[in-house]
Amino acid sequence: MSSSRWVAYDTLRAVHESDAYANLLLPREIARAGLSGADAALATELAYGTLRREGTYDAIIAEAAKREVDRIDPAVLDALRLGVHQLVSMRIPSHAAVNETVRQVRAAAGPGPSKFANAVLRRVSERSGEQWYARLDETARSDDERLALRHAHPVWVIRAFRRALAAEGRADELTALLEADNVAPGVTMAALPGLAEIPDGRTPTVYSPIGFRLGGGDPAPVVEQAGGRIRVQDEGSQLAALALTRAAPPRPGERWLDLCAGPGGKTAVLAAEALARGAMLEANEVSPARAGLVRDSVAGVPLPVPVSEEDGRTRAGRGRYDRILVDAPCTGLGALRRRPEARWRKTAADVPDLAALQGDLLRAAVDALAPGGVVAYVTCSPHLAETAAIVADVRRSAGDSLEELDARSVVASVSRGPIDLAAPADGSGRAQLWPHRHGTDAMSISLLRRR
Fold first, then answer.
1. pLDDT tier at 216 (50, 70, 90 boundaries)?
2. Which sign, positive or negative, has the C-alpha torsion 186, 52, 162, 144?
3. Residues 345/296, Cβ–Cβ less than 8 Å
4. Exposed, middle or buried, 2 (CB in 10 Å: 0-12/13-18/19+)?
5. DSSP 3-state assignment of 71?
6. What is the DSSP letter of 253?
7. Per annotation, catalytic residue among 148, 257, 336, 380
């Protein structure tokens, strides 16, 4: 049995049994198994590809097994998911995919379940991938369910994406967005401004002036060699941090706050910018573990950055700040490319509680602004209930004391080249980035200033 298959299988089991995060666990499992090259690539494709399309594969398994997947032993089900991914979406010969998966089920669950797995997988192998998608199209009860099965997104996410795109007059881009979510992103790096330069021979990012593409390989040596002044960071996150620091010319001695700082990528960019502009930066992260990551992230910046571990709703009121970043906890629907299991973990029922927290955090930040101070409200989600609705509600409650800046113009001024940022129908200044349009996570960026 291939070690790559066991690494992928163990990752799936940990994701489903212990709520592990595949993007954090899988690299450790690959290193522990001593995989490299093609073997590491196979483990990665098996784990990420299977988790990303889990909902679709469960529908195929249910059809082939003639029973719902919740009636299948979870240990067997995860192996079946891996087998279906190989049969439907990879170029692995059918006999190899079936035989290797059956052997895996026999080792994990015993001879009885292996016979069941063999029967299910042989039924799956009778159809090609496109034939299975055609079959799922036939069984779908609505157009949204058809999209959900074909593109492996929950129906509620598809509807949220459609509404967000429609708010820009771009509803016809929905399929392109869903397809982009199912393509693993390349590794993007950030060279902290004023502290590091983009290495020779690297391809700069299209929009962020501090970003570049790794172009393959392990980023860890690059980060270590630069002393933490070059970091792995999505281009959208880079633009979000720079939108705050460059929304208006800074004055020496400004006080800045990163209110929800974990894991610290944007904090590092803010710290470098604060150092260059004579500002002071504080950070806050309620989770002690994530607060530790924030401290690590700014270790390469020669600027004292105190990190508190408090509830952001009360922490913000301890001072008056000229710039505050509220990178609010959210559904994470904008980062589905890099967090393959995330789409199956959240439900529409999670949104109201998150929206309430987001509103409380933004209001606390607004209250902590000095006159003329700017807050950037950022989410890694395009869901309108987490973005436009939050900003509109806070603006209503603040009245004339708060004005919205044109975040699209700010991002465009920061961008290395022209950037297509559609104007929302609500007339706001919010900037929305998209995987299919910009090649970034779907970051929402709003800028508010106290008059």
1. confident
2. positive
3. no
4. middle
5. helix
6. T
7. 380
Predicted model pTM: 0.95
> Residue 6: CB partners within 8 Å, gap ≥ 6?
33, 104
Q: Could you tell me which residues are beta bridge partners of residue 254?
A: none
Closest CA to 5 of 93, 72, 101: 101
Look up tokens 């073997």; give the residue: 39
β partners of residue 64 = none
Q: What is the pLDDT of residues 425-444, one digit of tens each?
A: 999 999 999 999 999 999 99
Q: Which CA distances in Å does 360 have to 309, 369, 443? A: 17, 15, 20
Average pLDDT, the chain: 96
From the list 199, 308, 217, the residue with the least C-alpha distance to 259 is: 308
Dihedral over Cα of 331, 382, 14, 296: its sign? negative
Residues 305-333 pLDDT 10s = 999 999 999 998 877 999 999 999 999 99
DSSP-derived secondary structure for 376-425:
EEEES---TTTTHHHHHHHHHHHGGGEEE--HHHHHHHHSSS----PPPT
Give the list of residues 6+ apart from residue 364 with CB closer than 8 angstroms, or none. Answer: 259, 312, 313, 314, 315, 316, 317
CA distance 106 to 96: 15
Catalytic status, residue 380: yes
Is residue 151 within 8 Å of residue 145, measured between CB atoms?
no
Tokens 């919010």 belong to which residue? 430
For the cut 90, the answer to whether the pLDDT of residue 260 exceeds it is: yes
